[in-house]
Amino acid sequence: MLIRLGYDIQFDIPAPVAMVALLNVHPSRTACLLEPDQLQITPPVPVNVYHDTFGNLCSRFVAPPGRLRLCNSTLFSDSGLPDAVSPTARELPVEELPPETLLFLLASRYCEVDRFLDIAGGLFGNSAPGWPRVQAICDWVHSNVTFGYHFASPTKTAMDVYSDRTGVCRDFQHLAITFCRCMNIPARYATGYLGDIGVPVVLPMDFSAWFEVYLEDRWWSFDARNNMPRIGRILMATGRDAADVAMTTSFGTTFLSSFHVVAEEEAVASPC
Amino acid sequence: MLIRLGYDIQFDIPAPVAMVALLNVHPSRTACLLEPDQLQITPPVPVNVYHDTFGNLCSRFVAPPGRLRLCNSTLFSDSGLPDAVSPTARELPVEELPPETLLFLLASRYCEVDRFLDIAGGLFGNSAPGWPRVQAICDWVHSNVTFGYHFASPTKTAMDVYSDRTGVCRDFQHLAITFCRCMNIPARYATGYLGDIGVPVVLPMDFSAWFEVYLEDRWWSFDARNNMPRIGRILMATGRDAADVAMTTSFGTTFLSSFHVVAEEEAVASPC
Amino acid sequence: MLIRLGYDIQFDIPAPVAMVALLNVHPSRTACLLEPDQLQITPPVPVNVYHDTFGNLCSRFVAPPGRLRLCNSTLFSDSGLPDAVSPTARELPVEELPPETLLFLLASRYCEVDRFLDIAGGLFGNSAPGWPRVQAICDWVHSNVTFGYHFASPTKTAMDVYSDRTGVCRDFQHLAITFCRCMNIPARYATGYLGDIGVPVVLPMDFSAWFEVYLEDRWWSFDARNNMPRIGRILMATGRDAADVAMTTSFGTTFLSSFHVVAEEEAVASPC
Amino acid sequence: MLIRLGYDIQFDIPAPVAMVALLNVHPSRTACLLEPDQLQITPPVPVNVYHDTFGNLCSRFVAPPGRLRLCNSTLFSDSGLPDAVSPTARELPVEELPPETLLFLLASRYCEVDRFLDIAGGLFGNSAPGWPRVQAICDWVHSNVTFGYHFASPTKTAMDVYSDRTGVCRDFQHLAITFCRCMNIPARYATGYLGDIGVPVVLPMDFSAWFEVYLEDRWWSFDARNNMPRIGRILMATGRDAADVAMTTSFGTTFLSSFHVVAEEEAVASPC
After folding, report:
1. Does A196 touch chain B (CB under 8 A)?
2. How far is C163 from chain B (nearest CA, A)?
């Protein structure tokens, strides 16, 4: 399946400001790109490209005053298969986890693991370990939290979500991630494209957030917001939580003036 | 100057539990060790040693039920010089910072950078950039926060410290780190040994926390708790905040039963 | 000046639910009413009317399932004068305050006085006491907090407002109230009608929140959101903060389906 | 049963400061006093005595610089009966509650009812209404929260207690009060003397906190900390939470230097 990916994001910049963008397809998926995946910046500015400690591809530049436009269009060859489901995937004891996964058991800005240990134990301590436990967590979050764009707040933490029971997609994932970590299951935040392939269209296209957990021998995608296997989830970045993988981070004042994202099937499919 | 380092930490373990210890001198300082720096575990258990993503040396093991003892004694050859002071060290604009320092501008568990931008700007926006700004931050924290062991709480964040104006050494550093990051100065949390060499003894020996900022071309040590250059600061670990570099992290229930730390000058000095 | 007052508020009620409405003009202002000020409930239900401990007129009833409509229209004879301004109004020392004002020095749900003592002291400790200090507080809040309906949250506290610097009118008042109390000036939350008489119209009509402080020998109205004397501020209720004086409180599930408020000048004026 | 009551509380006062003390037996219990219940202040200062809006007896005065001593000794004739238990006491629907109890359904400083509605519903929605529900709440808090003086913090809220699961007696009550209010059961905070009559002595004598709920036709005492009927609970003050009924409130800087409370049985009993 071919998926056309792209975005057009515009800012008003009052004074020169350094920015970092995480707007590329994740390095682990670049083999499926059929066209270049190149961040276009208008006006053109020098860009410093680097990988952060999580392995994401980052672009750093100084935005000049005035209108700034970040855009791109590329073509991705997707398997067309929904998210993998493996109910027998085993939960590893902490001592068997690969060392690089241990970071994803710790507390982070929006995932206050240290404040949720008893709460999570009370809710999920009796669920079957492994995949069923992660699924129980997603089911709980999905059915207890109400989605709404007006519930969005940049400072909203898992504790806020647990208490107020409202949020946008990142909030659902933060709460689920926190529960997983409390149960000693490594969980990390993921962002990327997620088109409406195979599902009724209900919302304007946006980037999406989901999360990954480490079971058996690999990371698996889960999504407490949608809570169903989806087709066409294309990873851009992973991190401890949304603080690590903002699509754009501005080290000074910027005003978002427009925002469009594209992720839709194109006519001719060619499995990657 | 020779400094004798060591610790004796004991836990009561009700059931087998995975633990991670960050109890070694930091890899960057191992050249100064005159004796092996080996974590002794009693009863003996298999240990998995690895470096985390921050470069710290970590020991992972499963503690069996009963009394667990972690201890060590080693000898460190220190320069005997106080913390470096360089008032002309330049603050780099974000676009010139080494990529690996950018992580230390972001929000983390105990450092809610996203909630402090206006507060920090109001307090330190008019201070001279670079070293004087970091010093102004340390001065503010040092003179506005009251130290006391009974103010310690494992969930205390920079916002709690800013509001309640009380804390232990980690709290002082969390608030100062947060302020630095808001001002676009990379700041990371540091833990290690800090004996009472050259200062009046006021408190029982403990591990200590301080922080490092990136100015000019390197990381520099600052300490908002003590707020004076100190001799014999021996690094064990750095991370985004205390969540990353707990001396021991238990993935289940443990009870700390005794705790002793040693960091004192030995007779014969031999500069490293 | 004659001011037409009224509202039409509708709810969808899934199951019978007890509600309390504070939708009358405040008892201290009823002498200026030229028409009955009677809450109309559709469908009609028995209403228990009482005064709460703050002296507000409250209506309690059980809403039946289905559509619930609360409406009213009345006519108020206003002085047509803007809020009183008295820069020489003296700040009373705590020992001279009337006992009934002391409650309004204490912390309440959305006004964490206990967490703001040092912050308020740092910001306003050097301002001249009395009226100028309250005005300095309003000026600070007015110029440091950004208004926006999408910043509204039912759980937002003064600390959230101070940190995030965003909010709706109630949030501005909560922060200003908290600062006043920290400076030992009694401050209470006020709600009521505030039309756009004498000001450019910028927003749809709503109930409004402001606050009152006790100086010299009486309560005075201040408004950190608008921060200018206004005509036609007609009090409905006062309390410690928004938790005490919600226009409607539902003790179970209700869904607000429409909301209209009127407060506009009528042709023939007759000073009260 | 005769109970000797008293206290000796001393402060160091750096500069004149207004204080309010709630250190008398509650007006509802004064008929049982066999000796005067008179706050003694050293050095002597003029005292303004008044009742606050909750009906508590308050003493306001200006403390001069130097050592301040507040003390008292009185004799109370107690029934000698443990707290009343009435498992059939009915939970009133909100529409039948006396108006003056409705305030105790609302959120307050340390009881964030607005943030606990879903949490409380999840934990107690299936418990039998009335007395069994309040008992279920006490049982939950009693068995899930760990007591320790070093867990005390003046800014700790019910949410903090729920998350961290630690606290002193006021924290236990704040969490239980919040749960009750979420279930539409009026609950208020109570402070007073509680000796160790009939129980093993484990802690130094202190004032105690408990809470009261309104069931059937009156207020009943519950105590989520001790969670058992006790003899000799002598009320001093009630309010929405600890913010309303601090034993002493200082409107400026004071340092507590010593603190002793007495509440013990005297030889000759004479039922009140």
Report:
1. no
2. 5
Q: Which two tokens stand for residue A128?
A: 């079957």
CB nearest to A164's CB, from D115, D162, D163: D115
Q: Does A146 touch chain C (CB under 8 A)?
A: no
Q: CB-based contact (8 Å) between D48 and chain C? A: yes
The answer to whether C94 contacts chain D (CB < 8 Å) is: yes
- Provide the whole-model pTM: 0.93
* Rounded distance between C-alpha atoms, residue D80 and residue D100, angstroms: 30
Q: Could you write out the DSSP letters of every residue in A203-222? A: S---EEEEEEEEETTEEEEE
Provide the phi-psi class of A198: left if phi over 0, else alpha when psi is between -120 and 50, else beta.
left
Chains sharing 3 or more CB pairs under 8 A with chain C = A, B, D
CB contact under 8 A, B150 and D155: no
Asked if the bond preceding A36 is cis, omega within 30° of 0, the reply is no
- Answer yes or no: do A53 and B95 touch at CB < 8 A: no
D partners (3+ CB pairs within 8 A) are A, B, C
Q: Per residue, what are the HEC states of chain D?
A: CEEEEEEEEEEEECCCEEEEECCCCCHHHHHHECCCCCCEEECCCCCEEEECCCCCEEEEEEECCEEEEEEEEEEEECCCCECCCCCCCCCCCHHHCCHHHHHHHCCECCECHHHHHHHHHHHHCCCCCCHHHHHHHHHHHHHHCEECHHHCCCCCCHHHHHHHCEECHHHHHHHHHHHHHHCCCCEEEEEEEECCCCCCCCCCCCEEEEEEEEECCEEEEECCCCCCCCECEEEEEEECCCCCCCCEEECCCCEEEEEEEEEEEECCCCCC
The tokens describing A56, both together, are 């994401």
Rounded alpha-carbon distances, angstroms, from residue A183 to A3, A119, C31: 36, 11, 63
Instruction: Check if B179 contacts C (Cβ < 8 Å).
Output: no
Min Cα–Cα distance to chain B from C228, Å? 24
Considering only alpha carbons, which residue of chain C is nearest residue B116?
A: C163
CA distance C213 to A189: 47
Neighbours of B100 (CB within 10 A): 14
The rounded distance, in Å, linking the Cα atoms of A82 and A100 is 27
Closest approach of A81 to chain D, Cα-based (Å): 37
Our CA angle for B143, B145, B149, nearest 5°, is 130
- D131-144 and D169-182 helices cross at what angle (nearest 10)? 140
Is-contact A89 A130, C-beta < 8 A?
yes
CB D229 within 8 A of CB D199: no
Q: Is C270 on the interface with A (CB under 8 A)?
A: no
What residues in C contact A153, CB-CB < 8 Å?
153, 164
For A154, the 3-state DSSP assignment is: coil
pLDDT tens digits, B79-137? 999 999 999 999 999 999 999 999 999 999 999 999 999 999 999 999 999 999 999 99
ipTM: 0.94
- Pair D99, C50: CB distance under 8 Å: yes
DSSP annotation of B107 = -
Query: Which tens digit of pLDDT belongs to each residue from C149-180?
Result: 999 999 999 999 999 999 999 999 999 999 99
Decide the pairing of beta strands C248-250 and C17-21: antiparallel
**Pairing relation of β-strands D146-147 and D166-167?**
parallel
Determine phi and psi for D145, rounding to 5 degrees: -110, 135
| Nearest residue on chain B to D160, alpha-carbon basis | B155
pLDDT tens sequence across A71-101: 999 999 999 999 999 999 999 999 999 999 9
Long-range contacts (CB closer than 8 Å, 24 or more residues apart) made by B133-136: B133/B91, B133/B183, B133/B185, B134/B180, B134/B185, B134/B213, B134/B215, B134/B220, B134/B222, B135/B87, B135/B222
Longest dimension (CA), chain B: 56
